[in-house]
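User: quick one, fold this
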Amino acid sequence: MNARACVLTLSMAVLLGAVAPQASAAGRVTRFVLAAGTNEGGGDRATLRYAVADAERFARVLIDLGGVPPSNTVVLKDASLRDFLQAIDQLNARVAEARRASAAEGGRVEALIYYSGHADEKGLLLGDDRYSYRTLRDRLDQVAADVRIAVLDACASGAFTRRKGGRARAPFLVDASSSMRGYAFLTSNTDTEAAQESDRIKASYFTHYLVSGLRGAADASGDGKVTLNEAYQFAFGETVGRTVQTRGGAQHPSYDIDLTGSGDVVITDVRQTTATLVLGADLEGRLFVLNASQQLVVELFKPRGRRVELGVEPGTYEIRIERDATALLTRAVVADGASVALDLPQFRSAPVEVTRRRGPDLPPFAVAGRNRVALRLGTAARGSDDGGSSVTAGADTGGMIAGVQYTRYVRENLAVTFGPEMIASVTGSRIGAGTVFSGTASVIAVPLGVRWNPSRGVLWRQSLKPFIGASVGPVIGGSTGATVTTTRVDSGASTHTTIGGVVGGGVDVHLGRSWSLGVDGGYQWMSKFPEPVGGRREYRGLQLGVGIRRVFGGR
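Assistant:
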């Protein structure tokens, strides 16, 4: 995945008008939700795993804690662009009708739209269709809701807010109330970053932490309500912190906001749920709440001294706390209408699970942005300069090659290489057509090359990585001894330089994240030395090599 196009599994969301219903002197609040998720982005883009699940989770938390009735909620699964636009139009019609009905009472109408799927810097990608951000904003401007908030969790989704000046920075402060009017658009990343989803949390990072926050993890004030500011602040900090070491790089949520009013903009109210987990003030560490199906429901870092209430559905839960190299575990059954308090004495020691380790999972065969050092050995088949035969007395390794190569992976399918390689060595005497040499000589090539992996699909999942490549650079020959040709006699030390390179291909077999084995073959070409080196003026021919590689660095 690069920063401008979603090729890794990602998630994208659009949320319109997420202010939790609250009774007020001005009248009641009516809210509508449209949540859409699509795993397909068209072309050769990777199929997402959790886009639909993200949409379902987002809609569920607003039904549970956001005061949205199921009758006012629509969830689209793998929707086409046509389905998505029709759903927005139908939502707008219901919003307009509700606004006319509430006008006499002075109430407020809010609309929520959530979309999870692919995107790039130009717009949403639903299957083979692209829907531009400009057109989307224009369409959202037509929604007749009093309050509109959009949340985009997708590759380059920051381009959606950039038009109005949104940028990645610390959470905003909002002065909002029951008389709130306007919009707030939130995105999971900037216009040059990639959004990511994870097999560890089985969701996109931004949506996962946003939903965790809405269930109470973001309630910094401890009043049982989660405001827009609290939810964004929690999702911002967790998303940046948990993606900084991933292959896709850190995501920096951004926003564009234009809301007027006074009071608190409340998105969810934990007190509305019938089941609550209460985390005691003595608990500290990264905390995971999993349901009976081992699905991660809430994740947060719990500081000591803060009491946190989490609104959950009735059921059985496993609660795990991780602190560096130690872990604590407990289980709780939360009945309908019950509140279960958890304190430190209720936890017991547990093995540290790799699948819960701090920091996101790293794809084992990903190479983009990483480095490699390889030790390479091989052999070459070379003829004499004039096609005749030669006789050697002593050690002639003209058919052996050995070297060290450095590789920088620019992308998953593109790399540059550099490194010295000995392509010939002679010690003793060599008699060839028109040339006699006695002494020692060596020939070293220092090529700069490019390698390209022609494979298709999700390359960071593939342990077998074929490549084709080409290199070019100086070839340096040095000798000490005597060289006799038909025209001259030279003795002593001499050095000559020409140009050469290799054209060929091969395959790397990755044994894990850090090591790989490889085999390659190609044609070593070079221009002739101005004078013989080791009794020859050129060392061109076919070659075959094997090597062991150490891959390091990057994410």
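User: anything notable?
Assistant: The chain is about 15% helix and 45% strand.
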